[in-house]
Amino acid sequence: MITPPDVLVHSEAEARLAGLATPPGALGRLGEVACWFAATQGQVPPPALTDVRLVIFAGDHGVAAHGVSAFPSEITGAMVRLFLAGKAGVSALAATHDVSVRVLDLGVDADLADDPAVSPDVTARKVRRSSGAIHLTDALSQEEYDRAWQAGCDVARDEIAAGAQLLISGDMGIGNTTPAAAMVAAALGLPAAEVTGRGTGIDDASWQHKVGVVQQALDRVGARAQDPHETLRALSSADLTATTAYLVTAAEAGVPVLLDGMMSVACALTAERIAPGAAAWFAAGHRSTEPGQSLALEKLGLEPLLDLGLRLGEGSGAVAAVPVLRGAVALLRDVALLSEVMG
User: According to the UniProt entry, what is the EC number of this protein (predicted)?
Assistant: First the structure.
């Protein structure tokens, strides 16, 4: 069981919030998330939120070749290069909101190490080229699973050692909402139709096919899905396994995480299964359009900061929420107490 953020500090933060020169309850969710952040930092008022780090876990999925996505797998490698060039959607948001970005190739179906524009750090932890098609075979062998898990742990520790106050996980992988839906379905004991969304924008016929693929994967794995590690090995991918390990490691180290969309939250739900109590270290950045993400957030007891209809992935929704969290922290830090005003 993971130790939660400091309960006494949370109470102190709530007391400070109640004493601010603002009407009672006027700060709404901003007050709530500020108190949560203060508890994760162990002090009131909390320090300014200056060091936010996003790690984008990239990988391809064998299931993408089976009609579940509107785009081909070749897009994954191209997007990794775009991240590295600082020209992707999340790149623009991260630059605007002073969030550092690190990109890791865990399972991209291309030899990015051969590209001189791709630094060795990006590919150093690569597990394989594409994960298995989950409706036909396990995503990873045990050895591959262990390597992906270790990669996620190592990267989280790297970012924490470098001074991260807040971590974000991002995703890049064509077809990744299919294994993510399977992960959520396995965790919640739900049929595929209730958790499967349209990903990159597939039509009705493709969605029906995607539901069938997710259900086939769940049926293939059967009772093994009751074990969260087996859920990951059989139903996820190298990048999603690494993401889950990254989230568990952050919670174990007492470093808060701002969750993104479907992939991030599917991994967070699995992290909570593996390490009960981890969810207390997570806040939800935004609500995506994927039904499985909302179901997983409800199970985790998390209410998103933003609801903008985003479905970009990449960590973009969480990065877009960073200024909201920064503003909340500033309010709890810098607004005068009513007792000081009244003298």
Answer: 2.4.2.21
